[in-house]
Amino acid sequence: MTDATKDHRPDGPAHRLETGATPKPKLALYWAASCGGCEIAVLDINEKILDVAQNFELVFWPVALDYKTKDVEALADREITLCLFNGAIRTDDNRYMAELMRRKSKVVVAFGSCAMEGCIPALSNTTSKEETFNRSYHDSPSTVNPSAIEPSVQTQTDGFALSLPTFWNTVQSLDQVIDVDYYVPGCPPQAHQIWAVLETVIDILNTGKPLPPKGTVLGAGDKTCCAECPRTREEKNITKFFRPHEIKPDPDRCLLDQGILCMGPATRDGCGAKCVSTDMPCRGCYGPPPNARDQGSKMIAALASVIDAKSPEETDAILDGIVDPVGTFYRFSMAKATLGRRLVDHAEVENPDVWGRSPSGENEEVSP
Amino acid sequence: MTTATSTQTFTDTIDKSQTTPVWQPKIVAFLCNWCSYTGADLAGVSRIQWSPFVRTVRVMCSGRVDPTLVMKAFRLGADGVLISGCHPGDCHYSEGNYKAMRRVRLLRRVLQGFGIHPDRLRLVWVSASEGDVWAKVTDEMTETVRNLGQLRLES
Predict the structure, then answer these.
(1) Which of A117, A175, A260, A292 is most buried when burial is the number of CB atoms within 10 A of its CB?
(2) Predicted-complex ipTM score
């Protein structure tokens, strides 16, 4: 693709096309708190990646190219045309890179569920930094840490000072730390949607068409996952919830009809209904549909409507089948939850045991 | 204000530095149009004293109260949320109150997952003739929330 030895600063020779024509628009990809799946998804567009390389000059892509942060710092402000930023923000370094990419880029896209709404990293907002560290460095069965070492911001060793970025208590989405122009949902965004977005950008650059309004969700539909789902839906009367491993689902009937907790009704379409087509329930990675701010609350509303119970006792018996409600309804959108994060400093109740049955709440009193 | 002028109002004369704000519970109540709102109205016209810390919002049905509304109320500073509908079997829309009951029971679990005491959300049934019940319920809710203290959401 791009020769790593080339000088990519504004005055460098690679600033122009090989033919000596006008400079190519610059493209940067960065990952913050993410798993790397979004990066792989970009490569899933297969040979079209060559079209990307033909139309853009890749100036920064840590997973694939050996450019350093200092190379980006050396660029002029707004010199990068498009930055696809994936990953949530949970350390000082993540924030520094987000701010840097914002300064250097004309258009910043929150690429993938982590950057858009927190995704799996933001599930740690249901716990605290201390609990996360305890689990990671002390309590987990696979951890051997006899001297109880934890990462710290400053460490002195053999006369050298080592520093690590500060780890935050709360994971944030990209738009909670910088101004974001567009969003591409998905965990990861599906390859055909990534290519659709890149194709649109290339078209806009070539033809001078106007950009879509700021804040637009690109590479997704404007309905819910159910609109793409090939299964047959009937009237829903749920009498028992099953976890996916507890039942062999009917391949043609709606999964929610069968009592499998499927986030489809509260999730944006555009993925091609991949999970539900293979008997797995939708988990909600494409985020809330248009006009819904809080994916979790919409799912609570939808789900409670289709439970077949008329008494509090019956309802509770059915709801006991939902293990870890917060982690299920906010699996991908915890950073954007209306209620923020699980209370730590002002916690009023114990952390529910997500491995067992969720407590229904003490002193609960619903008349009659 | 340092000098008295003709535009000075009564509140300008209060020395604000001398008054410490006392926390009082803020409770948002969603009342269904057909039973509970009329019930609360009856409490009013009957001159029954009820908690001044409850702010009422009239909705067409308790089943219309989306969890988003409850969460947004908490986010905007409510310490408690009360939802009131028709008694089971009396819903103007047949089943809206059952829907509300199921939502509240699920929502209370979710609040617990966020570290919020589930008693901050309560569902009650108040009919159009139960002004006294409404007064009792609001006083109880105020007491519950007062004991729980101010809700301080973290972001």
Answers:
(1) A117
(2) 0.85
